[in-house]
## 1
Amino acid sequence: MTQWRLDRTYRSTSGEVRWTALGEEGAPPLVLLHGTPFSSYVWRGVARALSARFRVYVWDMPGYGASEKAAGQDVSLPRQAEVFTELLAHWGLGDREPTVVAHDFGGYVALRAHLVHGARYRRLALVDAVALTGWGSPTYRLLGSHSDVFAQLPAGLHRALVTEYISSGSHPGLHPAVLEQLVEPWCTEEGRPAFYRQIQQNGLDTTADLDGRYGEIAVPTLVCWGAQDTWLPVTWAHGLVSAIPGARLRLFEGAGHLVQEDAPAELATALAAFAA
């Protein structure tokens, strides 16, 4: 459950990025993007399941998980989209356009890389994705409004805050070992300031630059959503489906914002069928 290692490194324009690939090299490529305040660890089960049929690429965004966290680092979503575009080139996929699966913040990153930087995809799946203006859970909004104050919390209180915050992303609740793996990167000496840095740099209007552009998306698109998501309720899913031509919706009953944790088998099955 806790074994997840990104064994490769890419030096991006926003710091060192840790990544890995699973599955046979010649298999169709599929890329998984995480959101906040998570890392590629949330994709571990789905990634391993999909690697039986695909070459699965996973990575931690700069400022998250095992990737570099540094003072003054640009971890804004527009920069993450640039880094993702760099990574796609670094992986040397050539004319093998990947299926891209993006969760939470990763949704905007994948959409911006595609619409602004010209990243080419074969298919696109958006999972409880941050994309439409007005997003933001109540907790994220509170932290964003008072990030300077929360950043002064003692280490123990900071850990308790992050633990409660991440816990609320799951509907049935996270296994304690999983929760610890998601919390720990934010509780190191580098991780504590990094937690508030990514909130400070990504305000609720960050996604406004793509408003009105989703009609340009021509690749087959699947919108996946936890039916019990309290961070981004299902109304956001319907909004995305309406904005993207031909997009289809798949709801997962009993799942919250972290569908990967709450319904991993159902999500992996749906993604495998869509990517195939």
## 2
Amino acid sequence: MIPTRTLKELAEYLGGRVIGDENVSVNGLAPLESAGSDKITFLANPKYAAKVAETGAAAVLMAPGAESHGRNVIEVANPYLGFAKLLTLFYTTPHPPLGVLPEANVGTEVTLGEDITLYPGACIGNNVTIGDRSVIHSGAVIYEGSVIGDDCLIHANAVVRERCRVGNRCIIQPGAVIGSDGFGYAPDGRAYYRIPQIGIVVLEDDVEIGANCTIDRAALEVTLIKRGTKLDNLVQIAHNCHIGEDCMIVSQVGISGSVKIGNHVTLAGQVGVAGHLTIGDNVIVGAQGGVPSSLPADAVYSGSPTMPHKEWLRAMAVVPRLPELKKNISSLEKRIAELEAAIIRK
């Protein structure tokens, strides 16, 4: 059952301020367009500010100074963050611990924490450690010798391979593979000899891995995803990569082997990164960017090959005119040839 909260209670929870009737109660969130009188809505993008006047919501979550149009308001510095926290408050409930359910397959010398849940069909290898309150769904496979921290959520059909380590409060979505073999082969004439990948993958605390991601184990040491980094669905990270803290890696990004990425880096959708590069802290690479060389910190890049974003914008502004420019150049070349011929005739 969704709880009911007053605006005063919500403001205290968010660290915000009520403008209007703080005793009004709401029981959930809804969009500006469809919110009813029992819901709170939010304005995160000023582009939609006019809709505040039309909403049927009991209150609006918005930034200080925004036009309230006479509505009850909770002012917070970051309305989008406030929206996320209210979703958590109203709609997320703790998972009740169910223990080891029938048909969960648990190996030998396994260490299980308190208040865990292993669903039917979960497969836990020998010498695995699973921390307190962690949940392993049906079809998930935890290979021998792996360590899963506290409060982790591993969804159906995810795989954590041998000896890999997952920190606390990590989420691994369905179908993700942590610790698949790195793509390593030594040329042997016209054939290729497979190089054993004997390293591991380490996910630090609060890392989230999207559906059908693949993170390759290191050839010798560690493929590392540091604290707080989030991977969208369908991301490939090759062996020996080190990804920094609080990075956002968006869908269909491919990162080649031995790449070092700093903290708070954003790689937008379908970015490709060549191997053995370094990307500095606070870098943003735009969608479909191709990164062939290392990128200095604190900058925004776009294009393939990547270049500073402003340069890329100028270059892209020229692209639609290329046919016209080619025609003009051809005309100039013809005119120059005619002039040269006239000079020679004289």
